[in-house]
């Protein structure tokens, strides 16, 4: 494997270099966000455009307050953009919907439901028959390595186990795209590393499109097909870095020279932007 070729792109518009003969899974067109406050207006996100292809794993990386989570919340339909459009499979997003699965940093499981009931909650609301729900639960319990815990309640689980269930619940609903807002940010380093491997295993099996927000440079490299680096606020896309490390990836790749080259490049980019924050 040779030295990584890091892609330089125009700030604010970082279009995927994957084939563009088909409609992208996700398209963000000139999306901006201005928050109104008592003291005036704050531009959180300048007009930004990029695309994500079907089955692609994209991470967004940047300094605190750069608008990473704002982008994700706009895609999720939880926040309205001030300008621009977001399209999923060519159709404009105008609010929340079951076509987008969401995993937050905080644990969002229903405490009164068991692990199995949490995983199949959305399916039950859709009227999916019990046997089919049981089959889906069995599949994802195996996928996230939680077999034997199906009758446990969230209070009986560790933080990492709770996030495994949250990932399984999102995937069980078969969304078109999975949105993840720093889902491992509250975990200790060892658990975080394990969860990254669990997520990659689930992604490789499901081939879902994933948009993942993180502060962690190593995490962004290990998971992604492409890393989008954002500028300091007002946020815009500074650079796209395609990650060409072989898949499937194992933890040992973090010790390679190729991984180190990506890490050095991304740390430099983040430092440049962090120094601009006043």
TrEMBL record:
It catalyses: a quaternary ammonium(out) + ATP + H2O = a quaternary ammonium(in) + ADP + phosphate + H(+). InterPro entries: AAA+_ATPase, ABC_transporter-like_ATP-bd, ABC_transporter-like_CS, ABC_transporter_ATP-bind, P-loop_NTPase. Residues 26-257 form the ABC transporter domain. This is Carnitine transport ATP-binding protein OpuCA. It holds the Pfam family ABC_tran. It is an enzyme of class 7 (translocase). Residues 7-16 have a biased composition (Basic and acidic residues). SMART domains: AAA. PROSITE patterns: ABC_TRANSPORTER_1 (PS00211), ABC_TRANSPORTER_2 (PS50893). Its EC number is 7.6.2.9. GO terms for molecular function: ABC-type quaternary ammonium compound transporting activity; ATP binding; ATP hydrolysis activity.
């Amino acid at each position: 494997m040779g030295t990584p070729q890091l892609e330089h792109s125009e700030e604010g518009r970082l279009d995927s270099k994957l084939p563009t003969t088909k409609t992208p899974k996700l398209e963000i067109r000139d999306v901006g966000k201005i928050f109104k406050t008592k003291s005036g207006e704050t531009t959180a996100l300048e007009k930004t455009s990029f695309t994500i292809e079907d089955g692609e794993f994209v991470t967004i990386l940047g300094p605190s307050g750069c608008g990473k989570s704002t982008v994700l919340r706009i895609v999720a339909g939880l926040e309205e953009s001030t300008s621009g459009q977001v399209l999923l499979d060519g159709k404009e997003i105008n609010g929340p919907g079951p076509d987008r699965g969401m995993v937050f940093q905080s644990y969002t499981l229903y405490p009164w439901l068991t692990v199995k009931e949490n995983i199949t909650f959305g399916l039950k609301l859709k009227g999916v028959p019990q046997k089919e729900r049981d089959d889906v639960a069995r599949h994802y319990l195996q996928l996230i390595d939680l077999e034997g815990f199906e009758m446990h309640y969230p209070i009986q689980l560790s933080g990492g186990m709770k996030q495994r269930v949250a990932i399984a619940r999102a995937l069980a609903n078969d969304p078109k795209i999975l949105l993840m807002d720093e889902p491992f940010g509250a975990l200790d380093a060892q658990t975080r590393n394990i969860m990254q491997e669990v997520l990659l295993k689930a992604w490789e099996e499901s081939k879902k499109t994933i948009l993942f927000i993180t502060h962690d440079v190593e995490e962004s490299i290990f998971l992604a097909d492409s890393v989008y680096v954002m500028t300091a606020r007002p946020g815009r896309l500074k650079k796209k870095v395609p990650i060409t490390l072989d898949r499937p990836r194992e933890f040992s790749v973090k010790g390679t020279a190729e991984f180190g080259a990506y890490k050095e490049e991304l740390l430099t980019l983040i430092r440049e932007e962090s120094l601009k924050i006043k």
